[in-house]
Amino acid sequence: QQDVDGELQDVNYNIRFKHGGLWFGYTPKQYKMGHLYTSLKVGWGKVQLLNDQFDTPRDQIFVLTPEVGAEVNLTNWFKLGFTAGYRWVNGVSRIDTLGDSDFSSPTGAITFRFGGFGDGWQWD
Is 105 left (phi over 0), alpha (psi -120 to 50) or beta? Predict the structure, then answer.
């Protein structure tokens, strides 16, 4: 509920959660048909509640997402990836009813990866 002109009213909000940054990854033995994968996403962004009637505060956030997973080479230009991780968010402080833990959570993904991956490179 929100205080609107001295009266408590139910108010609906949309949550705007945007972030971006750097993505670091390591894939040992990527030439094998099945192999492990690990990555770390480090970024920053903004969180805000949106409503047509009110201006709402906006928080600057920091986001850290470590991931582990497996990849399967289906062809030399197509891989299927399965990852699991945890998205940790820090900096949510100005939004009354939400905090860091409301945006931090386990993650999982299935990805289709297309392109040249350098699997044939010789690292003598």
Answer: beta
Taking 70 as the threshold, does the pLDDT of residue 8 lie above it? no
pLDDT digits (tens, 9 = 90+) for 43-92: 999 998 887 777 778 899 999 999 999 999 998 889 999 999 999 999 99
Give the global pTM.
0.77
What is the Cα–Cα distance from 34 to 27, expressed in whole angstroms?
Answer: 11
Q: Using H for helix, E for strand and C for coil, what is the string for the chain?
A: CEEECCEEECCCCEEEEEEEEEEEEECCCCCCCEEEEEEEEEEEEEEEEECCCCCCCEEEEEEEEEEEEEEEECCCCEEEEEEEEEEEEECCCCCCCCCHHHCCEEEEEEEEEECCCCCCCCCC
Question: By the 8 A CB rule, do 61 and 46 touch?
Answer: yes
